Amino acid sequence: PGESSPSLWKAFFRENARYSTICNVCLDQMEQQKLHKNVRHVGAGVVTRPGDISSDDESDDQVLFDPVIVERSSDEGRMMKKWLKAARVKVGGNFPRKSAMEQTDRYLDRMKLRRKPTKKAIADEIEDLESSQSWGKLDLSVKEVGILTRWLSEARHGTVKRFDKKSSDVRSQLLNVLDSFDVEDDWETGEMRLEGNALKIEGDQITKKRVSIESQMKQRLEALHSDIELVEEEIDERRNEKRKELDASLSKLQTLSQRKKESRTLELNKKIDDLQGRCSNDESADAKAGYENEMAALHSLAQAEMEAENEQLQFEVNELTSQFTDYSKILDRELHSNLQRHERGCQTLREKTRKDFVYRESEWQKNVIFWLDKATRKLQARERDGMKNPVPNAKRARLEQRKIAKRNDQAGIG
Hints:
Blueprint: H1 6-16, H2 24-35, H3 75-91, H4 98-113, H5 119-133, H6 142-179, H7 186-189, H8 192-281, H9 285-388, H10 393-413
């Protein structure tokens, strides 16, 4: 007969069933004990002291507190109502009392006249709170900024690495536990194996989706890298063009200055030659002394003009070089700004891409961990039951035959 045979199940039940019998007399005694057990009522046995009851003339009503709304149907409302009822029973008399009603009216009037906090006061309070919780302005050097950036990058990488390791461990545990279940044992384990297979399929889908998303992210990152490379090339071209213009301007200045100095030198030399000719033709000592003084003055004038021309040339060269340096700094700032924008864009793309995957993966891991807990307890219970109540020989033989047939079928298909 098959496993669905009623006779086989009845025989198995008679062999392994355990009974626990309780008579009606014992049940009645237990119920009577529950009904007649001592119940301690709220406030019973406690004597009210004079100091426990406050006077209506005290100054407690001068303190204003924000109103607290408690619903009567809530747990707090029912507890407060029960406490109030017990207090009134202990105090005695008619409630609500007139003095209490007057005190409540006065309190409500003061609450109406109470000044509400202005927007400026609220803003100041928020600002004080933020200033107390913030670090303020920090002046960091380039080295310190580099250390912080490196630490942040390593922290993000470590978080991703730990999450990926956990994902791999959870999948390994799922496969190991799932291998412990056999389709022949579904009559005992219920839908446990099917739930595990569904989780495994869902995990495979998440992995495939992750690979697809990362591939798309990689393509978008490559596009962003191509854009920033184009920007760098454009900035380098502008810098090179500016450098060429600088070189051309410097060459032109040097050429003009050299021509100017040569022309002036020829002019002054011609005058000196004329003075030398006059000096050689004139035999007067005073005239020769005058000519020599004039030639010395022309030599000094030529030297002074050459030095002035060199200084003017150096000034113009320095000015052009300074303009090129300023322009290079502007290009460097533009490049730095584009690089920062590129890094932020890449980081935002990575975080956005990983955010969807992490959410789905986290929810899946929660379900897998919950299933692993149930499955592990189920397997442990099966092991204990198997040690206490071994499977009958006939049933064990049928299970072995089915497993052998299943392996043979798989080998034939392969």
